[in-house]
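Structural prep section.
Before we set up the soaks we want a predicted structure of the protein with uridine-5'-diphosphate in place, mainly to decide which crystallisation condition to try first. Input record follows.
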Amino acid sequence: MADAKYKRVLLKLSGEALMGSQEFGIDPAVPKRLADEIRPVFESGVEIAVVIGGGNIFRGVQGAAGGMDRAQGDSMGMLATVINALALQDTFEQAGMDSRVMCAISMRQIAEPYIRRRAIRHMEKGRIVILAAGTGNPFFTTDTGAALRACEVNAQILMKATNVDGVYDADPKTNPDAKKYDSVTYDEVLSKNLKVMDAAAIALCRDNNMPVMIFDINGDGNFQNAVEGAHVGTVVYNKED
Ligand code: UDP
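Run finished without errors. Recording the tokens verbatim:
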């Protein structure tokens, strides 16, 4: 691998990314493919923290739509991220990548508590840190968890893996005239309500100058190319940067 532009990255993987062609849960082939994408970057010495979502299993808003207390549903959603984190860890370790799961809610029999300095230490020692349970609070998303953790561990960039190759001004699946942005500012994302991350996550990144890259994790070598500095996907940043 060529010299990396980024030495420490936070990779956000959505729970839905783990479903593959399934309607629910985890398609075992998907974490394996993700591990293949991540391994060359990991082996080159780039420090990687992964925040994993839970939408393939449960989302608090779904529960609330069905009459459930929102905070209770969100706790279930956070538990879903822990299931995904353990699945990812298993796959990473089978692929020869040392990893630690750190959880924002206490679950010490199966995951370490999230401690910022310890997370950084793990990365420095060459372990992928898999961060589960988002922020540990209801009414948030794992995108906001990713923004928060990226700032906390001093990542150079938050890389959000998706199934589309960037940010568009309209839905490219339904609108053939949709235009892809190479780059876009946080304020434009917020004012145009572009589907990047929720507003809390974008505002946190904006206020802390944390660049966000939206890219397609399904392209062969896309993650590696992006870490090496190739223009992949869409970058969200402050204009004056
Ligand atoms: N969640 C939460 N607090 C957080 C992060 C997540 O309550 O800080 C809950 C929330 O219910 C959310 C679910 O966990 O819907 C799964 O996370 P998310 O929807 O962000 O997963 P993704 O869309 O990335 O798969």
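Observations: The pocket of uridine-5'-diphosphate is lined by residues 14-16, 53-55, 59-60, 73-74, 77-78, 80-81, 134-135, 137-138, 140-143, 145 (CB under 6 Å).
Flagged for discussion at group meeting.
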